[in-house]
Specification:
The protein is mainly α. Among the domains are: 7-47; 66-110; 121-145. It starts with 6 loop residues before the first helix and ends in a 10-residue tail after the last helix. The chain has eight helices and no strands.
Length: 160
Amino acid sequence: MGKPYTSDLRERICAYVAKGHSARSAGRLFGVSAATAVRLAAQYRDHETATPKPQGRPVGKFGKLAPHRDFLLDIVRAEPDITLKELAAALSDTYGVDVRLSSLHRALERAGLSYKKGLIAAERDRPALRRVRRDRIARRRPRMRQAAAHAPGSHQAGLH
């Protein structure tokens, strides 16, 4: 979708037409089509503004996931560790709606949910891997805090 003309250009075209010049001559002078100049002049005459109209459709109001938003949010709230693949399967089983995982991800992000997981899907079902990762993160955190404390520029002036 193209970008709207700048507000400055819109105002200059409207001011030129308001001084008594034709919209077509304004179009020639400012390098826009005659139809655009006529449309801007009419919009200014009728609404006293030449601001561009919103482009596109409202986010989340349309699309195949919009009617199922509450269903998806209820499932995620009930089972926070559900994977996108499991969520897509639930949507398909319940409503017969097949959807790509990226679409689900965007819909959940728009709803304010983050899908960052501590474990990747293959590790979630393996308790031994889950323990190894938890232990590794626990060992790493104190070292990371210690490194950050000794990094240049990490202390506030006058507090030492």
